[in-house]
Every structure is written in C-alpha cells, then in structure tokens.
Fold:
Amino acid sequence: MSLQLSISITLVTEAILVFEPMVSAKPEFSDAGPSDGAFEPDEGADNAAIRIVLADSQAIYRVGIRKIFALEDDIRVIAQVDTLAGLHGAIQRFPTDMILLEGNLIAGTVDAIPELVRRAPQLKIIVQSAQNDESNTVELYRRGVRGIIPRSISPDLLVKCVRKIAAGETWIDNQSINWVIEAYRSQATALTSPRTQPRLSPKELAIITCITQGKRNKEIAYQLGTTEQVIKNYLRKVYDKLGVSDRLELALYCLHHQLHKKAAGTVPATTPVSEALAGK
Structure:
C-alpha cells in the first residue's frame, strides 16, 4: 500500500506554484477596526468581491494591507483584528471568504488552524510568515492552510495570491512544495514499511476500532461512557503515536497494520472504508 499525491501544478511568476480547482464568490461586508469590535454590513458592496479578514498584531501592517486591497475592485477587507480571539469573533459574526493571518498570532499553538477550519469550513487561510522552516511549513499545509507568504511579499504578488486562492487553488513556492512532497513520501514509507508497533492503550485501541466501524466522536463517547472532548484528546495522542494527522491517515494505517483486530478480534468485511472515514 502506498499513498500518492495526485495534483496538477501550474508554474507562475516568481517561482510560485498553484494547485487547482475552484470556488464561488459570496456577498461582502464592510471594513471594521479591531478596537471597536463593530462589523457593520456594507449594503452597496459588490457581491462578487472576495471578503477578507486581516488578523495581524501590527496596526501599521494592517493599514498598509488595506491600502493595497482598496485599489482592487474584487477584494474587500471586511474586518481587522489583532488577536486570535478577535479573529474567532469576526468569522463567527459575518461570512468570510479568506483570512490573511500573521504567523506570530498562532505561534506555539497546536490547534489554531484546525479550530478555524472547524468554525468555518469554507474559509481559505493565508499565513504570513517572517521565516520559512520545513517542519512548520509542512504542518501548516497539512492542517488546512491554502498559502504561506513572506511578510515582504510585493503588493502585486499579494493580490495575485489572494485571487488564486479565492479561485480554489493552493499557493506554494518551489522550496515548500519539495518539503511537502518529501513529507508525503516519508509518510507513505512509514505507513507501509514493517516496524515495531507503537504501544497503544486498550482505550486507544477501542477508539480506533470504533473509527473503522464508521462511528462519530459522539457515538464513540457514548459507547465508551465518556465525553466527546475526551475522545478528541485521545485521538490527538493516537495521531502523534502513529505519525498520522487525520482520520484518513489513521484509517489507512489501521487497515494496513490490522490494529483494529487487536481490540475487536475481527471487523466485519462489509464495513466500507468510506464509512470508517466519515465520522467526525
């Protein structure tokens, strides 16, 4: 068994690659500052515009970015925030197409990106990073970021990046794509090569078995007599132990190494993989 990364790649200017397909545009709302917390709708706005929330701790940087986007008819800043909590409030209160997020706001956090995706699955996230390192880059793309850009990016390239990502593409430079591909290769090798199995507790094995049976976290919690949050915590530990990042990779690893049989004896052959991956 091996994992394959099947993507179409388009080479564009300044050594940037984009992965396709697409998304539809949505209605827009007006600008708002982080200090007053007001997010007022702009009734006269162009419904086809890309609605962006700026999340950055530096006010002068937010002002500069707003001036860049103000020159574009199809891009509108609907809110500015300077904290992660403020960002959660902004995307909860109004529909947002995209977040331009300062990397320092999520530094040291593990679940910041997945939490944003959970709150607004349609969101497209661009992270602005002062420095690019392999592990952080791979992890950000793995967790759902659609683009990583330097804070020194030119205005023209920033606007192009926003439009490409709004169209459903992934914005990634040559160095980063090499890191991501290498990570997938290493992951595929780890999933298929024989090795000593990590030690899993009986409860972790029981949770894995439930996942292969297509159960959701709420159903697993009910069956094991615990809470949904406890199940989520256990899943994070299982992901770390097995070197996987989500339900898909866990199911592939489990089916390949027959981990579910250690706890359940056998799993009905009629249980489709699609059901095993459907639980959230």
User: Anything to note?
Assistant: The first strand starts at residue 9 and ends at 12. The two ends are 25 Å apart (CA to CA). The chain is about 45% helix and 15% strand. The longest helix spans residues 174-192.
